[in-house]
Amino acid sequence: MDAIVADERVIWIPVKHYSPACAWHAQELIRSARPAAVLVEGPDDADPWIPWIVDPETRPPVTLLSAWVDKRNKLGRNGVLSAAEDVPARYRGWWPLVAYGPEYAALRAGTEVGAEVRFIDASLKALLPVMAGSERTVGDRELAENSYFDALAARTGAPDFEAFWHRMFEARGLGTDPVAFRRAVLTFAWCARHLGGEEVDPANGLREAHMRWHIDQALEAHPEGQVAVVTGAYHSVALPWVKRKRAAGRPGRDCVTLLCPHSHRALARLATGAAAPGWSMAVWQAACQGDATPHDSAALQILVDIGRRARDAGAPVGAADAVGALQVARHLAALRGGANIGPRDVRDAVRTAYVKGDVAVEGPPVFQAAERVLVGSALGAVAEGAGRPPLVADFYARAKELRLDLSGADKVVRCDVHKQVLHRRKSAFLHRCLLLDIPVFGDLGGRGPFRGPDLGGGRNLHLTTETWAVSWSEDVDDRLVELSDRGTTIEVVAASALSEVLHAAGDDVEEVARTVLTAAQARVLDGLPVALDRLLAAAHADRSLGHLMGALQDIVLLGGYHAALPAQGDARLAEAAVAMYTAACLQLPESRHVADEEAPAALDRLQSLVRIAVAGALPGPAPDRGLLVERLRDLLAHDDGQPLLRGGATGVLFALGVTTDRAVAAELTSYLQGPLDRILRGGAFLEGVLRTARDAFLTSPRLLNAVHAVLLRLDDDGFRRILPDLRRAFSVFIPAELDRIGQRVSEELLLTTPADPDAPLDPAELQRVARVEARVGTLLVDPALRVATNLLR
Questions:
Q1: Spatial CA neighbour of 43 closest among 104, 124, 101
Q2: Exposed (0-12), middle (13-18) or buried (19+): which is 677, by Cβ within 10 Å?
Q3: What is the pTM of this model?
Q4: How is the chain split among helix, strand and coil, in percent rounded to 5?
Q5: Opening angle at CA 581, ends 577 and 585, nearest 5
Q6: Buried (b) or exposed (e) across 101-130, using 16+ Cβ within 10 A?
């Protein structure tokens, strides 16, 4: 530590990222020493953005976002870090800059004193060969994850690294001497790095050698002046002795680094060491205003804001509760050995002072309010001259062109895609936003943001217009920034997202067809050709009758939109439809093996296939009915097949006019004249016939006679067992048809004159009724039955 602190040429300033205390001392050391150069941890390809970062019009939080897409699989990780080998892996690096962060404070202070200000970390492109995953975010993992800190946490009772850091550095840091604070941070970082026994990550070795190269360059450029180096403390204790080596992989046109607006909410999601940016910002603002007790002032402000939000959510929290919570937080901080209040103390004080009843019932709205305030709602902005990321600019340009209100007010937008060209474009834009999870939507009375025909999901297909709830939120820009590595326009990014969905679908032709519908409804013209190619490939590969029929129905649905959706007239669509229809017909004989519980769904698929064949609703040539008939006959060639499907196939052949009622009656009779188990299966066969060709029963006496014959010879037990199947079979008829069947039954039984319901009963009938009543009365007075009756009552 003596050697590091005594360095006359380099002021080593160790920091923890997102630390107000480190930010304060970094700026004070720079203002005091007035070095010739200030070198800050950050990607060196972002140097051109520094003037915009420190521009007075730029309002943190902002972030540097680097992105690279491995289109040629140079790293060999496509298919490992992406959905498939032909889907390029995407790499991103995030360097957030917040008002209370040491990097931003150093950049501002260096600019104030007229120093040369530069970033010195390796760029994302240089780090790619040693990156373990596809994303990199600034953090302090190395300080927290080592055996030295584990032992230290066990000795001090710290529950985690953030609580330890607050107690030892943050709570005391703002009131200490900058030199003493720097030495304390260096000492902790040295122990964490050198006493834990862990090996240095290769990525850190590459980065530190590259940082040292920049440091030496600055020392040579300023031989008479000092250089301030602001880096993570883990690096600060190694850099004085590292050998310089510039990292390979200099940025090119294929790797872009952007300066983007950010938010505290996005930061909390992105960086584990920044879980409470709202708290850190409140402390920083109080310190900058000269407050002697910034932590107390921040705690009071935070507690008041939490109370306000909790009241808005219906919790009974008043001003006195905020005062009480502040006292609880102070006592908790003292009990835990901290010099000042921290976010953990605030959370526990809220639980103690604001939750008045059952924690499980009364707690959630209070806890939600606490987290929202501790995270904060700050939104960053970049100076106008710096421009917007291309995707953000495209989003707002398209919204303005389509006259969408993005003021934040709740609006209802209606689109008639069949009649209005502008409405089609507006609908497509909103569907793209929905696909990409861009939070620009409100709610339609608890039913979500959209009501209309959902082609991809197969819901509400009876609706002809679309209704959208549009309500811009501050999270829109964060989401757009997250998507910026996928392209420069909403349509291109939507095509990228659909491409990944297609690869996830594999050879499932139904999933691919749904993706085609989604692409068509969102009018993603760049992605539609690829989707149609995948549909054609899946149509030849998938042999699941369920998948094939689902895909066929989707294609019929797409055809119903005519000019309202793209893809009409595409030869690939027609070719895929023919392939799916042919494959579905060829799979029909295999349906005889389905289990009884799956038979109704299989029969539905058969009926859909017949409707498609009869209606000719598919694009391209008319479906081959001869193939359908041939495969249905193959299905019927096995009399041990599933009876419901066999009945359905028989009914279809009758409806198509290729078999007779005599043949249908013969098939039914083969069931009904067998043993009881086969008779029971005959009920399912009859149901299949009636569901696909009920005219066969209405127009031919043979089927009625066959059913009548078996009912006459069944005993009571057999009748009771077959009755549910018969009821289900006859449920296909409407009341008028049931009346016709009843008339035919009465004629069959020679009941040509219907009985008069108002005529007096025959005396013999009256005597039989009297005997029945007497018997019932005898049973009811039986003691055991009486007890059972009382119990039932």
A1: 124
A2: exposed
A3: 0.78
A4: 60, 10, 30
A5: 170
A6: bbbbbbbbbbbebebbbbbbbbbbbbbbee
How far is Cα 593 from Cα 616, in angstroms, rounded to an integer? 29
> Is the domain of 118 the same as that of 212?
yes
Would you call 231 helix, strand, or coil by DSSP?
A: strand
Q: Which residues sit opposite 414 in a β-bridge?
A: 467
Q: Which two tokens stand for residue 372?
A: 């929202």
Sign of the torsion formed by the C-alpha atoms of 576, 460, 470 and 271: negative
Q: How far apart are CA 602 and CA 607, in angstroms?
A: 9
Structure tokens, 644:
């419901």
Q: Are residues 62 and 198 in the same domain?
A: yes
Give phi and psi for 507, each to the nearest 5: -100, 10
Helices H, strands E: what count in the chain? 37, 11
Between CA 521 and CA 504 the distance in angstroms is: 20
CA 348 – CA 311 distance, rounded (Å): 18
Convert 321-387 into a string of H (helix), E (strand) and C (coil).
HHHHHHHHHHHHHHHCCCCCCCHHHHHHHHHHHHCCCCHHHHHHHHHHHHHHHHHCCCECECCHHHC
In a domain, 648, yes or no: no
CATH of the domain at 330: 1.10.8
**What are the start-end ranges of the H helices in 694-762?**
695-699, 701-713, 716-730, 735-748
Counted domains in the chain: 4
Residue 10 CA to residue 227 CA, distance in Å, equals 5
Rounded CA separation 327/83 (Å) = 53
Alpha-carbon gap, residue 275 to 444, rounded angstroms: 33
How far apart, in Å, are the Cα atoms of 203 and each of 121, 133, 200, 208? 11, 12, 8, 9
- The strand pairing partners of 327, in sequence order, are none
Range of the structural domain that residue 211 is part of: 2-260
pLDDT score of 105 more than 80 = yes
The per-residue pLDDT for range 551-565, each reduced to its tens digit, is 888 888 777 665 666
H or E segment to which residue 59 belongs: none
Q: Residue 791 pLDDT > 70, yes or no? A: no
List, edge to edge, every strand of the sheet that includes 37-43.
10-15, 227-232, 37-43, 116-121
Angle at 315 between CA 309 and CA 319, to 5 degrees: 70
**Which tokens is 575 given?**
């070719």
Q: Is residue 657 part of a domain?
A: no
Distance CA 182, CA 186 (A): 6
d(CA 376, CA 266): 10
- Report the distance separating Cα 269 and Cα 431, nearest Å: 26
Strand 255-261 relative to strand 62-70: parallel, antiparallel, unpaired? antiparallel
Burial class (CB in 10 A: 0-12, 13-18, 19+), 457: exposed
Tell me the angle at which helices 571-587 and 625-636 cross, rounded to the nearest 10 degrees: 20
Helix ranges (DSSP H) in 289-318 = 294-312
Residues ≥6 apart with Cβ < 8 Å to 603: 644, 645, 648, 688, 691, 692
Report the percent of the chain where pLDDT is more than 70: 95
Among candidate residues 105, 166, 99, 103, the one with its CA nearest the CA of residue 138: 103
| One domain, residues 176 and 82 | yes
354 assigned to some structural domain: yes
Question: Residue 252 — pLDDT band, cuts 50, 70, 90?
Answer: low
